[in-house]
Amino acid sequence: MYPPDTVALRHVNLHIRAGEFVSIVGASGTGKTTLAKLMIAEERPTKGLVTIGNWNITHIKPAEVPLLRRQIGVVFQDFKLLPQKTVFENVAFALEVCGAPPERIAAIVPQVLRIVGIEHKVDRYPRQLSGGEKQRVVIARALVHGPKILVADEPTGNLDSINTHEVVDLLKRINEFGTTVVLVTHNREVVNSLRKRVITIDRGEIVADHEEGKYRI
After folding, report:
1. Domains contained in the chain, CATH given
2. By the 8 A CB rule, do 207 and 200 touch?
3. pLDDT one digit per residue (tens) for the chain, 217 residues
4. Regarding beta strands 180-185 and 55-56, do their DSSP bridges make them parallel or antiparallel, or are they unpaired?
5. Alpha-carbon gap, residue 74 to 147, rounded angstroms
6. In DSSP terms, which residues pair with 201 in a beta bridge?
7. Residue whose C-alpha is closest to residue 195's, from 179, 178, 181, 215
8. What are the residues facing 184 on neighbouring strands?
9. How wide is the angle at C-alpha 101 spanned by C-alphas 100 and 107, nearest 5°?
10. If DSSP states are collapsed to H, E and C, what string results for the chain?
11. Which CA distances in Å does 114 have to 87, 120, 168?
12. How many alpha carbons lie under 13 Å from residue 95 in its C-beta half-sphere?
């Protein structure tokens, strides 16, 4: 929630093409996370339009949000793993809440765990994992519906440099599979190593958009 009369974003005109890897950068409080939340309908704009593919989600109905979230995988900095569930169960839960049958869960969960390289820890609990391993579980959970878009909001914020590098490499591989990746970050080194499109936000406005850019602020 924002205080009254707060303007988090203004004059934002942005198009992300299917299959792109885009970094959205800027200092804390500039509007990066707000933009990510608009993409997943966690926030609604007071003006303007938000379109995913050909779907205008500006005034999306609450009942339609789960359908949208199956097309957009979301990765956050703070993991949001269920501590009483194993790695397998945490990933399976994303399918269970959508009513997926057991045979589908049994087929998909091992597949996404192999993609993120953590299939050997299916029976571990979150407390038994490193920060990098937890983030891999989160990414696996985001992939279970085969999303067209993956929105990663500061996914390396709690990780050391080695785990940061591994998670970013994983996001790049997911992008190579054809998934659009939107990375929200303030990590200059991560962005500059990617050599992908960089959108810079400052005080709620887009101040730079470079097709193969660097984090210049």
Report:
1. 21-210 (3.40.50.300)
2. yes
3. 555 556 789 889 999 999 999 999 988 888 998 999 999 999 999 899 999 988 999 999 999 998 898 899 999 878 889 999 999 999 999 999 989 999 999 999 999 999 999 999 999 999 999 999 999 999 999 999 999 999 999 998 888 998 999 999 999 999 999 999 999 998 888 998 898 999 999 999 999 999 876 665 4
4. unpaired
5. 9
6. 206
7. 215
8. 24, 153
9. 90
10. CCCCCCCCCCCCCCCCCCCCEEEEECCCCCCHHHHHHHHCCCCCCCCCCCEECCEECCCCCHHHHHHHHHHEEEEECCCCCCCCCCHHHHHHHHHHCCCCCHHHHHHHHHHHHHHHCCHHHCCCCHHHCCHHHHHHHHHHHHHCCCCCEEEEECCCCCCCHHHHHHHHHHHHHHHHCCCEEEEEECCHHHHHHHCCEEEEEECCEEEEEECCCCCCC
11. 12, 9, 17
12. 23
Tokens of 35: 């933009």
Tokens encoding 108: 């998909």
